[in-house]
């Protein structure tokens, strides 16, 4: 033990020494800081420590940065600003982690443990004391037990494990007297006296407290002395010794007043607040400067090249996925034909193959969303920057390709979810008449493109409120109407909703979408519902599309308990119809389709925290937000997001779900422990195993799916900001 404290004494002498050094150096600022600490002037001590950190950062000296952050953490600890102390000590620990192992790392963990002890977070305190002990043992620094044993006893006492606490304190008291151990033994004696007093062993308690007071006189620990005097006064009053009780109480009060005067002299609360605000402002400026440097490094031609390469990669991956899908399907069919006698085994293999296909396509779709978000986002930004006419054709083509791939990927994922039984029916009350009217209003412009009459016939006998899955119903109707409007020119598209039957609690509704478009050949009436099928190659080339819409319609209709029916004549048009059963509800309707609003005024001068690890998407999202007059702070990991949310006020947080280390859902849960007000919106390239309800369960307010549409991106933000 004595060797360890000799080492600590040498470390502190080295840290607080005042050699004459040249101005603007680590030694010079450290010297000024140490002098002010001795004079109890913590305002100037903090100032000069900050100057030392800036000097070390300027010269990129990791050793000095780590040392000065350690000093800053100890200053915060002395000022009882434990959260700030932990923040600085962790910075120091991260810097020391890049260097050779040293006792400083153990000292840092020891101080972090003390901070958590002060905050009564005994689990974290024990964790960091164990880390400190591990490093001391590894470095073979002798006799460090007393430093950590005392804290162990204090933890037992705080957890009301009094017998264990007494046992620990007795081991410290039994150690031989030594000047370096005086403070630790005095604390142990004081704790023993306090515990014995609780057990009403007053004489034994008085003996321990008197020994503690005597040993305290050899130290300069005023707070410890104040505690001992108060304990003695309380004990004498308990034993009806009024004179001694009054005498010790008077000494305690005088000493407490002296301590308060010294603490007030250390640092004014306004000065501390200004210092911390300047610290945060410096960090924000540093982050902003880095972002500006990244923006300056961008070049238009380089972006176009990157986008072109990204598109080629995406198309290649999609082609590969479809090729593997066909191979798996063909192999499964051959296997079933050849192994007819082993039908059960072949069936199991086919199911595994189907699952592998779904997982493969889901993975590909999910992984493509992040780079596709970058493509769509950068294209949007470039179109907003008044490009030259020669560039407009390229950018317009790029936007069309990006939008097409986005729709393609979304539909592939939707089919995979349905086939993997990941889709669940949601029940909510809604107004069917209002829903259909809103759909009609939202598609009026599309009808005008092909010069179509767009007619809705809604039966007034339909109950006002129904209970069912409004999302899937909307998806079915929108897909069918979109198809009808696309394949009809200068014709009529009619949507019919009619009450088929009704009881006290349930109603069956007949839906029918009729067009006067090109029609479907009789031999293709069944195959149009297959994936990637549009009737013929010529139709696909002329009208475009993915060929997945009707597949989704058929599967969703079946999930809701209906069956899609099709009648069509080439050159005369087509009719799609289905029946669905709903429960009748008396609850008020929710808003089915939200009208577009001007979000510019709501977004102006707001402050948003963007948590995104992908640098390109980070740059794109930040630029899009800044275009609306928003101040955007970017962070690329969950741990730093928690600290930023804890120490700053934001109007909204955009949280990427998939982050390195701590992911966005865990980070959101941690933030919600101390902030339940600030809106948090998830950003995710949503996968087969993710859904909106799952993400909202972690404390998020809404979900924006990558790749996102800029208008929807702004609308969702404006709703919560």
Q: Which helices and strands occur, and which strands form pairs?
A:
Elements: H1 2-16, H2 26-38, H3 42-58, H4 62-78, H5 82-96, H6 103-118, H7 122-138, H8 145-158, H9 162-173, H10 182-198, H11 202-216, H12 222-238, H13 242-266, H14 269-296, H15 300-338, H16 343-383, H17 389-419, E1 428-430, H18 432-442, H19 444-449, E2 453-458, E3 466-468, H20 470-486, E4 492-502, E5 506-515, H21 537-543, H22 549-559, E6 565-569, E7 573-584, H23 600-603, E8 607-611, H24 615-626, E9 631-635, H25 638-647, E10 652-656, H26 664-672, E11 680-684, H27 692-696, E12 702-705, H28 710-720
Parallel strand pairs: 2-4, 8-9, 8-10, 10-11, 11-12
Antiparallel strand pairs: 1-3, 3-7, 4-5, 5-7, 6-7
Helix pairs in contact: 2-3, 3-4, 4-5, 4-6, 5-6, 6-7, 7-8, 8-9, 8-10, 9-10, 10-11, 10-12, 11-12, 12-13, 15-16, 16-17, 16-24, 17-22, 20-22, 25-26
The helix-and-strand class reads alpha/beta
Gap between N and C termini: 58 Å
Write the CATH architecture name of the largest domain. 2-Layer Sandwich
Instruction: Report the helical percentage.
Output: 55-70%
Query: In the CATH hierarchy, what is the superfamily of the largest domain?
Result: Histidine kinase-like ATPase, C-terminal domain
Quaternary form: single chain
How many structural domains? 5
> How many alpha or pi helices?
28
Q: Beta-strand level of the residues, as a percent range?
A: 5-15%
- CATH level 1 class label of the largest domain: Alpha Beta
User: What is the fold named in CATH at topology level of the largest domain?
Assistant: Heat Shock Protein 90
The main β sheet shows up as: 7 strands, mixed
Overall geometry: elongated
Total strand segments: 12
Low-confidence stretches: 1-21, 532-537, 589-596
Q: What does the radius of gyration come to? A: 36 Å
């Amino acid at each position: 033990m004595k060797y360890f404290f000799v080492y600590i004494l040498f470390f502190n002498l080295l840290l607080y020494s005042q050699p004459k050094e040249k101005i603007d150096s680590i030694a010079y600022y450290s010297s000024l800081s140490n002098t002010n600490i001795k004079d109890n002037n913590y305002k100037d001590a903090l100032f000069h420590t900050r100057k030392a950190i800036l000097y070390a950062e300027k010269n990129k000296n990791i050793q000095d940065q780590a040392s000065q952050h350690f000093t800053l953490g100890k200053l915060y600890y002395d000022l009882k600003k434990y959260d700030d102390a932990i923040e600085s000590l962790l910075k120091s620990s991260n810097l020391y982690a890049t260097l050779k192992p040293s006792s400083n790392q153990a000292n840092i963990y020891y101080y972090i443990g003390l901070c958590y002890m002060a905050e009564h977070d005994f689990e974290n305190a024990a964790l960091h004391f164990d880390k400190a002990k591990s490093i001391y043992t590894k470095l073979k620094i002798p006799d460090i037990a007393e430093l950590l044993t005392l804290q162990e006893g204090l933890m037992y006492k705080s957890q009301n494990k009094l017998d264990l606490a007494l046992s620990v304190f007795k081991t410290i008291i039994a150690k031989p007297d030594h000047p370096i151990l005086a403070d630790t033994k005095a604390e142990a004696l004081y704790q023993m006296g306090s515990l014995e007093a609780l057990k009403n062993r007053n004489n034994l308690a008085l003996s321990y407290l008197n020994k503690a007071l005597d040993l305290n006189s050899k130290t300069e620990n005023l707070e410890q002395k104040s505690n001992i005097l108060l304990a003695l006064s309380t004990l004498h009053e308990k034993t009806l010794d009024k004179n001694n009780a009054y005498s010790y109480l008077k000494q305690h009060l005088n000493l407490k007043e002296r301590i308060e005067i010294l603490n007030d002299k250390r640092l004014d609360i306004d000065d501390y607040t200004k210092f911390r605000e300047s610290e945060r402002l410096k960090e924000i400026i540093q982050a902003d400067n880095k972002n500006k440097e990244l923006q300056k490094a961008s070049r238009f031609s380089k972006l176009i090249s990157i986008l072109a390469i990204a598109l080629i990669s995406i198309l290649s991956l999609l082609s590969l996925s479809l090729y593997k899908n066909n191979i798996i399907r063909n192999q499964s069919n051959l296997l079933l034909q050849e192994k007819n006698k082993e039908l059960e085994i072949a069936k199991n293999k086919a199911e595994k193959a189907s699952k592998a296909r779904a997982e493969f396509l889901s993975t590909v779709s999910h992984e493509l969303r992040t780079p596709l978000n970058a493509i769509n986002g950068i294209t949007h930004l470039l179109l907003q920057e008044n490009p030259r006419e020669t560039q407009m054709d390229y950018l317009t083509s790029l936007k069309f390709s990006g939008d097409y791939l986005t729709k393609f990927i979304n539909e592939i994922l939707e089919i995979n979810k349905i086939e993997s039984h990941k889709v669940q029916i949601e029940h909510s009350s809604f107004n069917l008449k209002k829903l259909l009217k809103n759909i009609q209003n939202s598609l009026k412009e599309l009808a005008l493109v092909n010069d179509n009459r767009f007619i809705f016939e809604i039966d007034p006998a339909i109950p006002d409120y129904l209970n069912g899955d409004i999302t899937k119903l909307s998806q079915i109707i929108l897909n069918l109407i979109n198809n009808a409007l696309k394949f009809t020119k200068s014709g009529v598209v009619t949507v019919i909703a009619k009450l088929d039957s009704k009881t006290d609690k349930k109603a069956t509704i007949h839906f029918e979408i009729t067009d006067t478009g090109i029609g479907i050949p009789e031999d293709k009436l069944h195959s149009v519902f297959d994936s990637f099928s549009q009737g013929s190659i010529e139709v696909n080339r002329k009208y475009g599309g993915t060929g997945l819409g009707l597949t989704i319609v058929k599967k969703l209709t079946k999930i809701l308990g209906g069956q899609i029916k099709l009648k069509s004549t080439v050159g005369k048009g087509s009719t799609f119809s289905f029946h669905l059963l709903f429960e009748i509800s008396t609850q008020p309707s929710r808003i089915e389709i939200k009208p577009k609003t001007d979000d510019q005024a709501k977004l102006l001068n707001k402050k948003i925290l963007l948590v995104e690890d992908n640098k390109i998407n980070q740059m794109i999202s930040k630029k899009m937000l800044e275009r609306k007059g928003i101040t955007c702070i970017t962070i690329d990991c969950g741990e730093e997001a928690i600290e930023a949310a804890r120490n700053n006020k934001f109007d909204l947080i955009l949280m990427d779900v998939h982050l390195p280390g701590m992911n966005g859902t865990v980070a959101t849960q941690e933030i919600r422990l101390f902030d339940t007000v600030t809106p948090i919106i998830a950003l995710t390239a949503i996968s087969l195993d993710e859904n909106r309800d799952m993400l909202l369960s972690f404390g998020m307010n809404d979900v924006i799916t990558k790749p996102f549409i800029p208008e929807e991106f702004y609308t969702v933000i404006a709703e919560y900001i």
